[in-house]
Amino acid sequence: MSPLDSRAKTGAAPQVVVDSLVKQYGGLRALDSVSFAVDAGEWVALMGPSGSGKTTLINILGGLDTLTSGRVMVDNVDLGQRSESQLVRYRAEKVGFVFQQFHLVPYLSALENVMLAQYFHSVTDEKQAEEALKHVGLSDRLEHLPAQLSGGEQQRVAIARALINQPKLILADEPTGNLDEANEAIVIDLFRALHNAGHTILMVTHDPDIARQADRRIELAHGRLSLDTTQADPGVSLDDEIRFDHLLERIWICGEEGTNAQVNSIRAPGASDPVRTLGRMADLKLVEMHESDVRLTETGGRRARDVVRRHRLAERLFKDTFAIDDSEAHTQACKFEHIISPELDQRICTFLGHPKTCPHGNPIPPGDCCDGNKRSGRS
Fold first, then answer.
1. Is a pLDDT exceeding 80 seen at residue 83?
2. Pairing state of beta strands 43-47 and 293-296?
3. Is 263 helix (H, G, I), strand (E, B) or coil?
4. Please, where are the H alpha helices in the chain?
5. In this predicted structure, what is the pLDDT of residue 6?
6. Left (φ > 0), alpha (ψ -120 to 50) or beta: where does 97 sit?
7. Which of 57, 71, 115, 268 has the fewest CB atoms in 10 Å of its CB?
8. How confident is the model over 147-161, as pLDDT tens digits?
9. pLDDT at 61
10. How many whole angstroms separate alpha carbon 93 and alpha carbon 121?
């Protein structure tokens, strides 16, 4: 079922629909069957390691890049069916961009840089541009050139420029990446005000503190959707995420052993009753409950596979490289499985020669770095 179909059941019309999106660059698949929907007025934090497809996704949503297959709809505009000239008009009318690099014209004043965005509508309004700069706290910097402005001030000019045509969708790619702490706080306050005013925001960020201020967090890994969670639920904490990972790992292991995962069989020794946790995981579409049996969804299966892979790679690393005993290796691996990034995962795997099994002989799910030529067969 597509994101649009699932929302249709509730009568809600999402502003953004991404359905089975694929973006291919030659032999590289930057985005692989990504699907989600965003309602009008949502603030979504888009996260993931470098190379996971975040910027590619933002560029496609903004009409700066085209999709290979699938469907992308913004305000009922099917971007896959638009010509380049139509995409230019779409960018001017529907989207406001804020990038990590400010992209200001160096020989134009702050006011002129904002007015530049108005030219796409063939209408310039100096008074409106002044108001936009006043809105971001730059009423005394109208005639300053970019070189005469601080980094934070330049980013605020870029935000004013993004808002001048009153776009329905704001796309921000690491908007605080080049700012110091004080200016970062000012810029995030501006985004918070935009959100409160009803703007829809999709923001790429690596900063978990910034991501926590959004309504929702979407994570990409290797071009695939790895996590989509509503952060408005105050009960989903880091500790909860760790509990989710532990249960997903145990469900995965039951599958490896050819047994059904049942509530009693996946309870960790000494741990609390997992029923409530499993219920919340079902709400997040990580598992499905069938009476006493627990099954992984497609999303839960990918996450479980990644957790198992990280744990067993960490065990192999501690055992082979640091000669740590089995008990300590397992304890440390339990900590590492929650913090190893996909990039570090691949580096560890490559360093170890793409091992097939952990020290206990359990299979290590192969990663993107593993293929028939690279696998050494170490065990």
1. yes
2. unpaired
3. helix
4. 3-8, 54-61, 84-94, 110-118, 126-135, 151-163, 181-196, 208-211, 238-257, 263-266, 275-283, 298-322, 326-336, 342-351
5. 46
6. beta
7. 268
8. 999 888 998 898 888
9. 94
10. 8
Place 46 in a pLDDT band, splitting at 50, 70 and 90.
Answer: very high
pLDDT range class, residue 340, cuts 50, 70, 90: confident
Q: Angle formed by the axes of helices 126-135 and 151-163, to 10°?
A: 130
User: How far apart are alpha carbons 230 and 286 in whole angstroms?
Assistant: 13
- In sequence order, the β-bridge partners of residue 172 are 98, 203
- With tokens 């490559």, the residue in question is 350
Single-letter amino acid code for the residue at 243: R
Contacts 24+ apart (CB under 8 A), 2-11: 2/35, 2/71, 3/35, 3/36, 3/37, 4/37, 4/73, 6/37, 7/37, 7/39
Assign 305 to helix, strand or coil.
Answer: helix
Yes or no: say if 72 and 78 are a contact pair by the CB < 8 Å rule. yes
Cα–Cα dist 370/353, whole Å:
9
